[in-house]
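Q: Fold this one first, please.
A: Sequence and structure below.
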Amino acid sequence: MNTDLVLFGQTNFRNKPVRFGIKTDDRRRHMYAVGKTGMGKTTMLENMIIADIRAGRGLGFIDPHGESAEKILDFIPEERLDDVIYFNPSDIDFPIPFNPLEQVGTEHRHVVASGIMGVFKKIWPDVWSARMEYILNNALLALLEFPGSTLLGIMRILSDKEYRKRVVDNLKDPVVKSFWVNEFAKYTQKLETEATAAIQNKVGQFVTNPLIRNILGQSRSSINMRKFMDEGKILIVNLSKGKIGEDNSALLGSMIITKIQLAAMSRADISEEQRPYTKDFFLYVDEFQNFATDSFASILSEARKYRLCLILAHQYIEQLSEKVKPAIFGNVGTIVTFRVGAEDAEFLEKEFSPEFVAADIVNLNKQNIYVKLMIDGAASRPFSAQTLPPFPKPEKVYKDVILENSRSTYATPKRVVEQAIASEWIGDGKEAAEERVVRRDEQSLGSTLVGNGSDVSQYGGERPFRKPLREKKPVSKVNIDDLRKAIEDSLTKSQEEKDSSKQ
């Protein structure tokens, strides 16, 4: 068998089944699968992921349901245990730090800001406005220049004058600096309140949630995406909407995808001579419409030259925006359709006719598919097939080992995170600052991949915590006070749980 192939189906013509798959070079032109729930999409994705893992390939899997992410853990072989990161936000006692604002180069800051705003716009369509977008964009661009900043800084830069001054004084971008110095600073109190209320209200819903705050509020990420991709690692992201909430799932998923996109684009520094030896990274995204902002189109058009290969699946085409839809069908090489509704079938008929028409597509049986397969750089004529049965569960599984490895190597204990965030937001004074320095110096157990590729401890090591802000007067914005109260409540609850466990 050709080891370059990933098998995902078998022909059903004249009852002569022949298994087929797709070559690595053809996968660089991406793969798209659509079909109603229960038709077999998820099993097909799982089979391909397991095949990639067994072949030693690097991949990422974004799962908004969680069941497949957990299932895949059973199929990690012993020889690949050290390659796996299991990112599970619902594991609240061991949050894995992820900071989308960390160490973003000047040329990519607008990409990050656009991606974050895209997901906010998608989540809050009822309150989104041009003014909200304008202010939020300048807030994000300012924070992207400020060392050690996180998304929690959005609240502070809008409400905390001392913090805002520190950020603005650091700015090098003349346009962004002009906004804060010549425009925002001249807002009347009433105008400032009106202009920022919606942003603070909506962003506050995320940052007052301990689950999200403890992930996004750490200044140093524990995963270096570029190094991760170059070394062919496995990233499994469990974004179960039922456990962490739909909006939180969409927010984290979109930001992780943007981070992977930037890591892939950074491969532009690889010489032409070395590019043929660059490892492909296969990114699987189930229900990808949850994470597909308008900026997602640029990933599809640019990913191939950086060896980022996308495998996208969802339920119906209407879920896609008017910008994303043409990007999909204009850039994807392989298309797989399961049974879909009448409206989607009419749209897909353009891709599959004259071999198959809309009536054929709406009547497909479970696990039956129509395929336009990229073969040696050219799209095949559409043909019918069946998906393959699921792999049997291995006799020996290492799920517990993977969970422990991810916690000990990439996560930070909840208590440590909350103390650090509290020091930053509440201002614990000199003792807290000294405690952070001591803790940072003592944490030298193990190593992990961080933003600049250096070794740090499993608890964050050299993650830079900024000097805590000492409030000289009460902050005027209610949302800031609410956030501080939420952090204090969270710390109190953690201590109560800790005391209870000792009894």
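Q: Good. Now the second chain.
A: Here it is, same layout.
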Amino acid sequence: MKKLASAAAIVLGTFAFAQAGSVNTVAQTGDNNSADILQKTGVGNHSNQSTQVGDQNSVLVRQSAGLNKTTTYQEGDFNQATSLQGHTTWGSNNKVIQSQVGDWNKATAEQYQNWDEYITQVQDGDGNTAHAYQIAGARMYADQIQIGSNNTASSSQTAVGPSVPTWATNNDVDQIQMGDHNSAAATQSGWGNDLDQVQVGDYNTMSAAQDGIQNMSLQYQEGDWNIAAITQSGDDNEGTQSQVGDGNYASMSQTGDENKAVQAQAGGGNTAYALQSGDLNIISGGQYGDANWASVSQTGSMHSSVYSQTGDHNILTNTQSGTGHSSISSQTGDWNVSTVTQKQSGHTHTGTQSGNGNSILAVQGN
């Protein structure tokens, strides 16, 4: 067994490692730190660099087949970083970089079968948690950055083996949190999916799940106490949600192929629901003000729904089923109500409300 290792342990710092054909560097400064590194199997070009500054920190790195690289940096006390990479016969270019600054942070990264899987997790502050799992592999990238304290981020990507076409194997997750007590979760299964989530503020929650081929999700939160969720199943779906303000709620679900939905909220206490089941449907909605409520449900194919709410306490409900309906709704003012139901095929609705306390009820089709 070939060993190339350099380690410094000051005051009760301990480490243990076993290697096969790799380079390892461990530096520990502080008290009661621990590092456990295992790098083995002949086909891996392993490399590890671990640095711990502070007390009671722990690092565990295990690397097997593939061109592996792990860099871990921890500064503060009671931090943990765990990195596990490919342990099958078809690993490739693996990378994990985890940096934690502060106390009581935890970062876990696991890459199973690989091809080009990269994970980068950066945490700044205290009490942050980040998980990234990329199990079956192909080409997957996950970046999670948390600036602040008590934030939580979790990412999981599952694809298939090396037999899938190379043009469709890129799953990518990017999650960025700036503030305190934010939570973000991302799950992808399939090929060519892209998921981006950004949180700026405190106590925000967002989640996204995608299953299929070449789906895209984008969520942005700025403010406090916002909640956003996207679920997509099928191929070539796109979902975008933006929240600026406090206490907003947005939920989006798309099942089928080539559906698109956009929901934007600016203000406080707004609620928006978007549900699409079928193919080639479009929802575009905006809420600008406070305490507005909107729900759009489309079942079938080639529906289009566009709405805007400007003001406070407006309510909009739009339900479309069948094929090829179109609805455009505009509410400006306060306490307006619009209810639209379209069935069968090819109906069109346009409704405009300006002022306060107006009401629209429209039903088309049997």
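Q: Anything worth noting on the second one?
A: The chain has three domains: 1-96, 115-214, 226-366.
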